[in-house]
Automatic annotation (TrEMBL):
<dbReference type="Pfam" id="PF20421">
    <property type="entry name" value="DHR-2_Lobe_C"/>
</dbReference>
<dbReference type="InterPro" id="IPR026791">
    <property type="entry name" value="DOCK"/>
</dbReference>
<dbReference type="InterPro" id="IPR043161">
    <property type="entry name" value="DOCK_C_lobe_A"/>
</dbReference>
<dbReference type="Pfam" id="PF20422">
    <property type="entry name" value="DHR-2_Lobe_B"/>
</dbReference>
<protein>
    <submittedName>
        <fullName>Dedicator of cytokinesis protein 8</fullName>
    </submittedName>
</protein>
<dbReference type="GO" id="GO:2000406">
    <property type="term" value="P:positive regulation of T cell migration"/>
</dbReference>
<dbReference type="InterPro" id="IPR046770">
    <property type="entry name" value="DOCKER_Lobe_B"/>
</dbReference>
<dbReference type="InterPro" id="IPR046769">
    <property type="entry name" value="DOCKER_Lobe_A"/>
</dbReference>
<dbReference type="GO" id="GO:0031252">
    <property type="term" value="C:cell leading edge"/>
</dbReference>
<dbReference type="GO" id="GO:0005085">
    <property type="term" value="F:guanyl-nucleotide exchange factor activity"/>
</dbReference>
<dbReference type="GO" id="GO:1903905">
    <property type="term" value="P:positive regulation of establishment of T cell polarity"/>
</dbReference>
<dbReference type="Pfam" id="PF06920">
    <property type="entry name" value="DHR-2_Lobe_A"/>
</dbReference>
<feature type="domain" description="DOCKER">
    <location>
        <begin position="1"/>
        <end position="314"/>
    </location>
</feature>
<dbReference type="GO" id="GO:0007264">
    <property type="term" value="P:small GTPase-mediated signal transduction"/>
</dbReference>
<keyword id="KW-0344">Guanine-nucleotide releasing factor</keyword>
<dbReference type="InterPro" id="IPR043162">
    <property type="entry name" value="DOCK_C_lobe_C"/>
</dbReference>
<comment type="similarity">
    <text>Belongs to the DOCK family.</text>
</comment>
Length: 314
């Protein structure tokens, strides 16, 4: 701050009580927004000031608000809703500066893909005319040469928060897994001959990880993407990932407190019964029937065998 500027330091908020007032307002808003853990962080700044003034009345009030916040954390547990995320890409010269830009949008908790798709289509339809806007239905990379230059294209994909393994050590609670998020992932299944889905032995997968400029939750509900990484998983790696996921679901269902028989029943049916993308039996027959000829695949082969060992144990 430059003290010579008129009115900056004489504003009514530029005082200790002004600061406390603003922080209390912030805590209240965080509480309304269901971010109870941050209420505690805000009051950590307020409490020392109140203690210095020996303002016991306000301290009583503050601690009762903190108690309420902690109670809410305990009572609401996993039922809290933090938002759904979508990647939105804009293609076409009609968008001007937005052309080829990608954003991550944060939507209210249970927003389905058709809802955001309908909203954006309506909004840009008003800007450019309804016939000029088209939503790209898949999440495959967009080939600009195949697009009509007179149209505006929007590609919308559901994305999930992405963490490295080391990050998961610090992100233990449900809140930590949904706060301060700046990396998101979506997967695109594909086969070498261009079809999205095929037999187990030819099913590849592209994992795309996006990094946003700021972390969610943020002042705005859309943040631009500043980095994009892609990883291709080979069919055996896709199988390993599937088996790990099934094992995790089984573990979660068997360790649930209190036990939930219905949930376990569903997970078991999904794990053992043959589903759309064939069950574990099929995976074992395709990838583990014989030792691979290519030495590069030994590691994956062993990893998949270990996955099955863990899976059967569960």
């Amino acid at each position: 701050l430059s003290p010579d500027e008129d009115g900056i330091c004489s504003g009514r908020y530029f005082s200790e009580s002004g600061l406390v007032g603003l922080l209390e307002k912030a805590a209240e808003l965080f509480s309304t927004g269901g971010l109870y853990e941050t209420v505690n962080e805000v009051y950590k700044i307020v409490i020392p000031i109140l203690e210095a003034h020996r303002d016991f009345r306000k301290l009583t009030l503050t601690h009762s608000k903190l108690q309420k916040a902690f109670d809410s954390i305990i009572n609401k547990g996993q039922k809290r809703m933090f938002g759904t995320y979508f990647r939105v890409g804009f293609y076409g010269s009609k968008f001007g500066d937005l052309d080829e830009q990608e954003f991550v949008y944060k939507e209210p908790a249970i927003t389905k893909l058709p809802e955001i798709s309908h909203r954006l289509e309506g909004f840009y339809g008003q800007c450019f005319g309804e016939d000029a806007v088209e939503v790209i239905k898949d999440s495959a990379p967009v080939d600009k040469r195949k697009l009509d230059p007179n149209k505006a294209y929007i590609q919308i994909t559901f994305v999930e928060p992405y963490f490295d393994e080391y990050e998961m050590k610090d992100r233990v609670t449900y809140f930590e897994k949904n706060f301060s998020l700046c990396r998101f992932m979506y997967t695109t299944p594909f086969t070498m001959d261009g079809r999205p889905r095929g037999e187990l032995s030819e099913q590849y997968k592209r994992n795309t990880i996006l990094t946003t400029m700021h972390a969610f939750p943020y002042i705005k509900t859309r943040i631009s993407v500043i980095q994009k990484e892609e990883f291709i998983l080979t069919p055996i790696e896709v199988a390993i990932e599937d088996m790990q996921k099934k094992t995790q679901e089984l573990t979660a269902a068997t360790n649930q407190e209190p036990p939930d028989a219905k949930m376990l029943q569903m997970v078991l049916q999904g794990s053992v019964g043959a589903t759309v993308n064939q069950g574990p039996l099929e995976v074992a027959q395709v990838f583990l029937a014989e030792i691979p000829a290519d030495p590069k695949l030994y590691r994956h082969h062993n990893k998949l065998r270990l996955c099955f060992k863990e899976f059967i144990m569960r």
